[in-house]
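subagent[fold] <- orchestrator: predict structure for attached chain, return tokens only, no commentary.
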Amino acid sequence: MKENLESLFSLLDSFYVLSEETKVALIELTQTKQYKAGESILSQGDTNKHLYFLDKGLVRAFYYKEKKELTSWIFPENTLFISVYSFLTQTPSNETIEAIEDSTVLCISHAKLQKLYNSYLDLNVVGRKLTEMYYIQMAERATNLRMVSSKTRYENFIREYPNLINRIPLGYVASYLGMSQETLSRIRSQK
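subagent[fold] -> orchestrator:
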């Protein structure tokens, strides 16, 4: 398991360097899980009881609106992911999180993470900085969906995730970008 945690530690250390003591505590409390493509990691209506780190694979979060499936987030390797509201409030999730590809995920329970926050100040700092980063990303995403053209949203996606466009079904990309698959196809054909 230690080799899987190197990517996680690299990410966490980029926010604030964790002590060896904190890393040892994380190693002891982190589990590794495997998910097949299409398998749910969290189902709508269930409470998000774990913080996840995607070591290998590709994951998305989605919800239903008027019987239509809409992708809210796409998570590539080396990212942390949760259903934010469900995890922070420990209430049922409005979204589903599923593996797009066969995926290796590291996870730690909400309860164990809270105990670590109480015991390790450095992890608390990382948690705060991660929360700030994800809040900023959510605000940027909301602004982009309201104020940026479909073409520019697609161009930004390609610039930010150049290696993902061929790994994700175009319907997922289109719904993530807030457009129809037909609009996405038209934009792509203009390139």
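orchestrator: received. Logging for downstream: The mean pLDDT is 94. Helices lie at 2-13, 20-29, 84-89, 110-119, 121-147, 150-160, 170-176, 181-189.
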